[in-house]
């Protein structure tokens, strides 16, 4: 396997270097072909390196950044005033070819805005999309996009999302001719708003994509399709609803086994399983979400990711580099558009 | 308590009179002030009455209907061709003052279209909305609307939904000054699309409503607010997502206790609780959904409702009659609009 280099925003997320540095060290020891550039405050990152008995090396470099993007800063503000931030410098490394991908657990809005400006979108892509996987009953996670990068989308944008999601499912998810659906309020052809209706027409006219029709909210989790496309408003509400309902159900199950000793044993038996389910229901927290449609790879880890979760985001970035996701999206889009013209 | 009369679409739903007739009989025996008109095929309904040793009486009348609205028929088609259907005649009874409310488990789209034409909307209301409750961690169900009656909504429509939802929460849910939120992709003021942004401004300028701001998908289930407003596209996807994820979680929990005998015993102990959770996660199936904003009361029971679920829908309609929901919506709207002018 050829070497690859990741730029990590070491300061991003709720725990900054406390999580990113040990996750980076773990990744380096797991993957001999991996190099990492830790971008962040020299002192804070250095302290964590020392704590883990690690030093800079050809495989582990430290790039000092004067600034940090606060978690609550508005994207436009961050874009204008945080040119020396760890997030921005990590993206610059990808743009300049010094890193193959960037991973950050920082401010999502700022990351999307900066990534769009620094890396720019692929030809034919108007807007990048945020994508993550959700669990299904048949254990084949489904790719859902957009998760909130674009609250308003026209049919052309939804079509581009469909191309990007299909490529990701094929290259990273190893699905052959991934089944694709549009999220809608009914599965009948007449249902939905104009954007969804028109996107359906575009997709039906594109044999390179395996478009199967509309799917409703309860169809997300059945595993009947591989990729589901919707605008960022609907996608974000869906993702957060999933997290909320999972928390409610697990909470109520815990409540319901209080009291009975036998039931407490069950709760104990189920504990690991409940934790795993809870993680699955928080996909962006657990596996990281990817920004698709850029001339570079950017993986967003959840702000309160722990070491394991941040390591997962690193691994996601590695796979996307190895499978050349942006290049494949560009190729697929070109072939689709060529066929249409 | 003064007498009240419900018109039941006896033919609606997957099981028609097999469910609606016994549910009606049960309701009549529970509530001495209740009268019911069963609207449906004379023979099919009569057969179910005989099976339950019941006959027509001053409290239980049968109104023959020649037609039934098929579950999959398009609303416009039903509107045009089903003027003698059980659904349509039940709505006519409400319009003519012969019944105080209508309950149907039939085709949702057809019911909404017919109800709008037959009963018409209240003054100041552009479109009726579909509303149901979702469970929360603090056991105070939250009212969510619109659930799919209107896939595209402008800010004015969202504002009207807020008024209607607040009145329902106050009158039926017994909440004092119900807390109201708009469903959005972030809780910060700058987030969301134009409709949501403008609706927020309208709500902030309306002291008669207890508007608390934006809420995200995971906030639906925390019980922090009483009423959540969104367009019918988002609401429908949210409701269906809730049902889907609940099914997935319960399925996976069942899978995870397979094998171990102890765990199986405990699963058996939890069975009732799991069923209850499952019902809560399917609110329109369990309690019925209400059509708000009409000059009359219409409750929609889920198509595959069993006797208990249909009885719940009957009870919901009774409470809405007793608490005079449409009149209160009209009053509230008038006072809000008067204050604004």
Automatic annotation (TrEMBL), chains A, B:
<comment type="function">
    <text>Catalyzes the reversible formation of acyl-phosphate (acyl-PO(4)) from acyl-[acyl-carrier-protein] (acyl-ACP). This enzyme utilizes acyl-ACP as fatty acyl donor, but not acyl-CoA.</text>
</comment>
<dbReference type="GO" id="GO:0043811">
    <property type="term" value="F:phosphate:acyl-[acyl carrier protein] acyltransferase activity"/>
</dbReference>
<comment type="subunit">
    <text>Homodimer. Probably interacts with PlsY.</text>
</comment>
<keyword id="KW-0808">Transferase</keyword>
<dbReference type="GO" id="GO:0006633">
    <property type="term" value="P:fatty acid biosynthetic process"/>
</dbReference>
<keyword id="KW-0444">Lipid biosynthesis</keyword>
<dbReference type="Pfam" id="PF02504">
    <property type="entry name" value="FA_synthesis"/>
</dbReference>
<keyword id="KW-0963">Cytoplasm</keyword>
<dbReference type="InterPro" id="IPR012281">
    <property type="entry name" value="Phospholipid_synth_PlsX-like"/>
</dbReference>
<comment type="similarity">
    <text>Belongs to the PlsX family.</text>
</comment>
<dbReference type="InterPro" id="IPR003664">
    <property type="entry name" value="FA_synthesis"/>
</dbReference>
<keyword id="KW-0594">Phospholipid biosynthesis</keyword>
<protein>
    <recommendedName>
        <fullName>Phosphate acyltransferase</fullName>
        <ecNumber>2.3.1.274</ecNumber>
    </recommendedName>
</protein>
<comment type="pathway">
    <text>Lipid metabolism; phospholipid metabolism.</text>
</comment>
<dbReference type="GO" id="GO:0005737">
    <property type="term" value="C:cytoplasm"/>
</dbReference>
<keyword id="KW-0012">Acyltransferase</keyword>
<dbReference type="GO" id="GO:0008654">
    <property type="term" value="P:phospholipid biosynthetic process"/>
</dbReference>
<keyword id="KW-0443">Lipid metabolism</keyword>
<keyword id="KW-1208">Phospholipid metabolism</keyword>
């Amino acid at each position: 396997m050829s070497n690859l280099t990741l730029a990590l925003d070491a300061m991003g997320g709720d725990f900054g270097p406390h999580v990113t540095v040990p996750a980076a060290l773990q990744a380096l020891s797991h993957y001999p072909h991996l190099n990492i550039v830790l971008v962040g405050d020299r002192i804070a990152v250095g302290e964590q390196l020392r704590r883990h008995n690690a030093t800079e090396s050809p495989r582990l470099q430290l790039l000092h950044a004067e600034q940090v993007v606060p978690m609550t800063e508005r994207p436009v503000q961050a874009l204008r005033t945080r040119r020396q931030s760890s997030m921005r410098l990590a993206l610059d490394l990808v743009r300049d070819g010094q890193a193959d991908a960037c991973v950050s657990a920082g401010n999502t809005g700022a990351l999307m805005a900066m990534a769009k400006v620094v890396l720019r979108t692929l030809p034919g892509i108007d807007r990048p999309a945020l994508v993550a996987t959700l669990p299904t009953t048949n254990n084949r996670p489904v790719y859902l996009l957009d998760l909130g990068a674009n609250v308003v989308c026209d049919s052309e944008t939804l079509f581009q999302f469909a191309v990007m999601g299909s490529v990701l499912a094929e290259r990273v998810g190893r699905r052959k001719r991934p089944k694709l659906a549009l999220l809608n309020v009914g599965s009948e052809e007449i249902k939905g708003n104009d954007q969804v209706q028109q996107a359906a027409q575009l997709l039906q006219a594109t044999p390179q994509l395996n478009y199967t029709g509309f799917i409703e909210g309860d169809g997300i989790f059945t595993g009947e399709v591989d990729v589901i496309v919707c605008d960022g408003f609907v996608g974000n509400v869906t993702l957060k609803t999933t997290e909320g309902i999972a928390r409610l159900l697990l909470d109520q199950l815990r409540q319901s086994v209080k009291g009975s000793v036998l039931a407490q044993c069950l709760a104990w038996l189920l504990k690991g399983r409940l934790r795993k389910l809870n993680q699955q229901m928080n996909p962006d927290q657990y596996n990281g979400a990817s920004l698709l449609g850029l001339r570079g790879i950017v993986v967003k880890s959840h702000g309160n990711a722990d070491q394991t979760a941040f390591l997962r985001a690193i691994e996601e970035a590695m796979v996307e580099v190895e499978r050349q996701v942006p290049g494949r999206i560009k190729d697929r889009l070109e072939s689709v558009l060529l066929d249409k013209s």
